[in-house]
Design a protein that fits this description.
The chain has 13 helices and no strands. It has helices spanning about 5-20, 45-50, 55-70, 75-90, 100-115, 120-130, 145-150, 155-160, 165-180, 185-195, 200-225, 230-250, 255-265. Helix 1 crosses helix 13 (about 255-265) and helix 10 packs across helix 13 (about 255-265). The radius of gyration is 18 Å and the shape is globular.
């Protein structure tokens, strides 16, 4: 059974994911303009609905962490089982958030294990959970793991086992942008571009190969080097990168999921609301 604390963490994670979806323009990624301007393979409306479908599974992950009380193999196995059930539910709601579920599930469980942890401390606890092998996981390799093995990329598992370095980079980018006076949407976009500039995104490796990945990384760096999205040169570079990636149908989905993880960690501590009576 989930508690109010578990449900609050789950809702904060969903809010982080929908907050990431609300940003625009996001290079190669669906955003609110899709409702009015075009239809994409990852329909923005469907992604919002499926994000909300993650809430029960994320709350169950938080409850499992509180019940287990430590980042143990048992907890890792429980999170894996809950995650697979949640993937099925999200698939019925339109799908589209598998990578984000992995990231948010581990971070939600870490936050439940140590409610006082913040920032890098949450990522470190998630690392301890991810270090264990899920012995009940399907033996057939996923597309992401196959791409990781082919190109030597860390992939989602490697990112978690390293303590989510790109979540931490995104948190640092958020802090820098806010300190410099950037608005919140611009700070979040700069954080996304910071992740894109160095992440070995397995989705991009699958669709665009190593050359395409380097092209995307260079484009993200160019926006940041132009001053970021709060400056006119940065906005022009962002618009050019957005048009380029949409034209090529290259989507840095891994970066989007890690930004959602950073926004969740950034939102801690969460407010626990009383249940409706």
């Amino acid at each position: 059974m989930t508690s109010r604390e578990d449900e609050a963490l789950a809702q904060a994670a969903v809010a982080a994911l929908t907050g990431q979806l609300a940003l625009a323009p996001k290079p190669g990624l669906p955003d609110p303009r899709d409702l009015f301007a075009r239809v994409t393979r990852m329909d923005h409306r469907a992604l919002r609905w499926s994000a909300k479908a993650l809430a029960p599974g994320l709350a169950a992950m938080a409850a499992a962490a509180r019940r287990t009380g430590e980042p143990s193999p048992r907890l890792r196995a429980e999170l894996g089982a809950i995650g697979r059930c949640t993937e099925h539910s999200v698939g019925l709601a339109g799908g589209g958030h598998r990578g984000a579920l992995w990231t948010l599930g581990l971070l939600v469980a870490a936050a439940a294990l140590d409610p006082r942890a913040r920032g890098a401390e949450v990522a470190a606890t998630a690392k301890r959970i991810a270090a264990h092998t899920d012995r009940n996981a399907p033996r057939r390799p996923s597309r992401g793991s196959t791409i990781s093995a082919t190109y030597g990329a860390a992939g989602a598992r490697g990112e978690a086992r390293a303590g989510f370095p790109h979540v931490r980079r995104a948190l640092d980018a958020l802090a820098r942008a806010r300190t410099s006076g950037a608005g919140e949407p611009q700070a979040r976009l700069d954080a996304l571009l910071t992740v894109m500039s160095t992440l070995q995104d397995t989705e991009l490796l699958h669709t665009a190969g190593p050359v395409g990945l380097r092209h995307v990384q260079a484009g993200a760096r160019a926006v940041l080097e132009a001053g970021g999205t709060s400056t006119e040169p940065g906005r022009e570079a962002l618009a050019a990168l957005d048009a380029d990636l949409h034209a090529r149908a290259w989507s840095p989905r891994g970066s989007a999921g890690l930004l959602a993880g950073a926004l969740f960690v950034d939102s801690l501590p969460v407010t626990v609301r009383p249940r409706a009576v």
